[in-house]
Design a protein that fits this description.
Layout: H1 22-30, H2 35-73
């Protein structure tokens, strides 16, 4: 399931402390990886996923009711569909 969301506007940055294994951080830096960018992307994905799950939970009853209605009555355009 993919929900379309407007692009994020640049927000003010907030300094945040993370506790990460030092050997992993050293390895990432040696490989030229940005720990901050990786953490930001992972956090954004976790937030996106949590929002999608919350939306689905909030709308599950309506989705199930709609699916039951379609199963019982069919789609409005069933007679127009071509194989």
């Amino acid at each position: 399931m993919r929900m379309n969301a407007p692009p994020r506007l640049p927000a003010r940055r907030k300094a945040t402390n993370l506790s990460l294994p030092s050997d992993l951080v050293a390895e990432a830096k040696a490989l030229g990886l940005s720990v901050s960018q990786i953490a930001e992307r992972a956090l954004a994905e976790a937030v996106r996923q949590a929002k999608a799950e919350a939306w689905l939970a909030e709308n599950r009853q309506a989705i199930e009711a709609y699916n039951a209605k379609v199963a019982e009555q069919g789609m409005f355009n069933d007679d127009l569909r071509q194989l």
